[in-house]
Design a protein that fits this description.
This protein is an alpha+beta fold. It has four helices and six strands; from the N terminus they run ααβββαβββα.
C-alpha cells in the first residue's frame, strides 16, 4: 500500500493529499490543536475509502507534547497527519521522517505557516506554504 501511495505522489504531484477533502481534514485538525497555540500535537490517519472518499480517523490526544498512537494501522490509510505547535518548526522532524520510513506512508505536518510532508523515501517538501489556513479558511473568528 505504501509503495502505491509513494508511486502516486511521485507521478502526479500530491494527488489525494492535496484534494479539498484532505485540506478540510487538515483544517479541522489544526482547529482542534488551537490553531497552533496549544503545546500538544494532534494527529490522525487520512484514509481513502473504497469509493474514493477521504475520511479522517483522529487519534486520542493526551498531555504529551508529541502525538502518540498504539495499535494497528487501519486499512486504506494513505497518510499520517499531525500538527506542530506554532513554537515548533513546520517541517517534519527526524522522528516524523523515521515514522514515514517505518510505516511506508507519508507523514504530513500541519502548522500555521505551512503544510509539509515527509515521504517514505526520506524526502521532505512543502505541500502548502504561506498562511495556508488563513488563505483558505479564515473568518473573522479564527486567528
Amino acid at each position: 500500500m505504501g509503495a502505491f501511495v509513494l508511486t502516486f505522489l511521485l507521478a502526479f504531484g500530491c494527488g489525494d493529499l492535496c484534494r479539498g477533502e484532505a485540506v478540510a481534514h487538515y483544517a479541522r485538525l489544526f482547529a482542534d490543536a488551537g490553531y497552533g497555540r496549544l503545546p500538544n500535537e494532534r494527529a490522525g490517519f487520512l484514509i481513502r475509502e473504497t469509493g474514493g472518499t477521504l475520511t479522517f480517523a483522529p487519534w486520542h490526544h493526551s498531555d504529551f507534547a508529541s502525538a502518540r498512537y498504539r495499535g494497528a494501522v487501519p486499512a486504506n490509510v494513505i497518510a499520517v497527519v499531525h500538527t506542530h505547535p506554532s513554537s515548533a518548526s513546520p517541517w517534519p522532524s527526524a522522528h516524523d521522517a523515521r515514522v514515514a520510513r517505518t510505516l511506508a506512508l507519508p507523514v504530513i505536518v500541519v502548522a500555521k505557516h505551512a503544510v509539509t510532508i515527509a515521504t517514505p523515501d526520506g524526502a521532505t517538501r512543502e505541500l502548502f506554504g504561506g498562511r495556508w489556513f488563513a488563505n483558505r479558511y479564515s473568518t473573522a473568528s479564527t486567528p
